[in-house]
Amino acid sequence: MKLSVEAVLEIAQKIERNAVTYYDKAAEYFPAYKQELLSLKMMEENHVKLFLAMQDALEQDQRSSLAPDPFGELDAYLQAFADTSGGEGRLMEIRYFTGKESLDEVLATSIKLERESILFYRKIEPILLKNGKTHIDAIVEEENRHIKILEKMRENKSMQGGNDGR
Fold it and tell me: Which domains are delineated in the chain?
């Protein structure tokens, strides 16, 4: 993998795939909120498809390297970056997801990760050139909707007297 528009899109796909896993696990642990969590999972799956479509539409010059990789270490760096950056797609959040967390903890973490994802996408936006801006705007808009859904779930949980959804 080279540091290029294509590489950035591959990172974004990996982050979104990690988010799919995160919401899938959350749905498993909190059956009372399964429908909402699986809905978020489906939205993340759509983000993967959108980034893949953006990658498929790239011109050859956008696929070429924008940065030299003389030691051949860029691929490992980019994979690690995808697993540790990008908010909702951070693998460490999934790896340490034990099922012992309260629903409130999971929702608070999810909201934080969605916000971090928005920051990540705004950071990569300039790399994606003008044709990527519209897509990033749409994804950021959807990530904001995810935050609203999660906040509503958190609010409903509080109104139900702290029902943890298990």
Answer: 5-159 (1.20.1260.10)
